[in-house]
Each structure stands twice: as C-alpha cells, then as structure tokens.
C-alpha cells in the first residue's frame, strides 16, 4: 500500500475546539495541522446541515453506521484512560484484523491499513489510520467532492447520539476554505471529529475522515 502523508490535522483542530486537550496534546495536534498545510487544498465550505440521502432510511446503511459507531465507542474506551497507557501496535492489530507494521514519523509511529473484515458506508470502504499521539481514524481518502459530502452528512446524522454534547462546527480558515469539520466530546473523555477536505481539487479527489482523539 503506498504511504500517505498525515492528513488528519484539520480534524485534530476540530477536536481541540471541543476544549478537551491539554497543552502537550495541542502541540502534537499542531504538528498534524502543519502536515496538512503541506498537502494544500481549498474550495467552498458546505453549510454543515444534517441532511441525509436517498439511503437515509435504508436498513443496511443503518447497520453499517451502527457498526462504525460501536467501533468508535470501543476505541474511545481504549483511549479514555490516557494515551500513555495504550499499546498502539496491539490496537492497530485489533482494528486492522492482523499485525501491522508502523512507520516512524519522527515523534510518533503511524499505522495504516485496510481492515479485515472491511468496513463500508455508502458504498465507500473505510481505511484505518492511527498514531501514537492518540489519533485514531477511519478514512476514505480517494473519493469525490459529492461522495465526501454525503459521507459527512450521514456521519453527522447517524453518530449524533454517540455525542455527550451537540456537534460543534469549526469554521474553515482563509488558507483552507474548502475544509469542513465538526467535533463533539464523548462521555468518557475522548473527542470524535468528522470532516472532509480536498487532496487534489483539480482531480476532484477528496478525503473523508472520522477521528477519535484521546486525552493525554
């Protein structure tokens, strides 16, 4: 599988907006933010509504999002006692369904895989990305603008009941006007953040990411 740069930074910013990170965590997440800036990207910000699609009431889709929500809760339980207590190679193996080799990114190790069995929503397969700073994510990295918007709106709708508070929308900044992110705290401490951003606007290549951010 080709290596990818860390592109979860803006979701980390969204999680920080929920007010659940200490200074050390913020420094780590700023490193993720800098990595995303090096990827580039931009566009029109969506309105952040909770619209559904034609499959909003489809039972299979409900089950798929329920599986995603259950996975997020299990991850949050693992992270809740603090990032320093987590065995990340073991967590990566559990999420991926097999042992995964991490890559050294300087101050953290990063793990990436296509999970077995696969996890699919709205016809898009989600990949696993996690690192030892306490960021664990499901991502769809090679989708269109329209597909990323559909995933985002469905995530906001389907996962709202998992939040201890309502979603907080994070305004895009001038450099990254195409990004759209939302976050909410979970009852046990971690924050979940969901968003989409362009990887290559000219090629209509976007990424959807759903992140669990653990406390330090």
List the helices and strands and how they pair.
Layout lengths: L8 H9 L5 H17 L19 H21 L8 H9 L6 E2 L4 E5 L5 E3 L2 E8 L3 E9 L1 H14 L9 E3 L9 E6 L5 E10 L4 E9 L3
Antiparallel strand pairs: 1-2, 2-4, 3-4, 4-5, 5-9, 6-7, 7-8, 8-9
Describe this structure in words.
The chain has 216 residues and is an alpha+beta fold. Helix content is 32%, strand content 25%. The protein has 5 helices and 9 strands. Strands 1, 2, 3, 4, 5, 6, 7, 8 and 9 form a 9-stranded antiparallel sheet that branches. Strand 7 and strand 8 form a beta hairpin.
Compact description:
By secondary structure, the protein is of the alpha+beta class. It has helices at 9-17, 23-39, 59-79, 88-96, 145-158, and strands at 103-104, 109-113, 119-121, 124-131, 135-143, 168-170, 180-185, 191-200, 205-213.
**Would you list the SSEs in sequence order as H and E?**
HHHHEEEEEHEEEE
Report strand %.
25-35%
End-to-end separation: 30 Å
What radius of gyration results from the CA coordinates? 16 Å
Largest sheet: 9 strands, antiparallel
Q: What low-confidence regions span 5 or more consecutive residues with pLDDT below 50?
A: 1-11, 13-53
Number of helices: 5
Mean pLDDT: 79
Q: Look at the helices and sheets and give the structural class.
A: alpha+beta
Assign a percent range to the helix content.
Answer: 25-40%
Shape, per Cα inertia axes: globular
| Overall number of strands | 9
């Amino acid at each position: 599988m080709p290596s990818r740069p860390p592109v979860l930074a803006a979701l980390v910013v969204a999680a920080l907006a929920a007010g659940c990170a200490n200074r050390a965590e913020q420094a780590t997440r700023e490193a993720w933010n800098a990595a995303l800036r090096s990827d580039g990207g931009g566009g029109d910000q969506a309105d952040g509504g909770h619209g559904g699609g034609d499959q909003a009431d489809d039972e299979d889709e409900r089950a798929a999002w329920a599986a995603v929500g259950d996975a997020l809760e299990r991850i949050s339980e693992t992270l809740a006692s603090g990032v320093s207590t987590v065995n990340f190679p073991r967590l990566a193996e559990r999420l991926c369904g097999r042992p995964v080799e991490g890559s050294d990114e300087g101050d953290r190790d990063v793990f990436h895989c296509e999970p077995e069995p696969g996890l699919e929503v709205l016809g898009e397969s989600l990949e696993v990305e996690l690192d030892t700073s306490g960021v664990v994510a499901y991502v769809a990295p090679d989708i269109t603008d329209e597909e990323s918007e559909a995933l985002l709106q469905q995530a906001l709708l389907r996962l709202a009941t998992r939040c201890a508070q309502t979603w907080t929308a994070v305004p895009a900044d001038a450099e990254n006007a195409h990004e759209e992110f939302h976050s909410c705290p979970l009852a046990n401490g971690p924050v979940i953040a969901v968003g989409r951003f362009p990887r290559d606007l000219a090629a209509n290549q976007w990424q959807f990411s759903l992140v669990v951010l653990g406390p330090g």
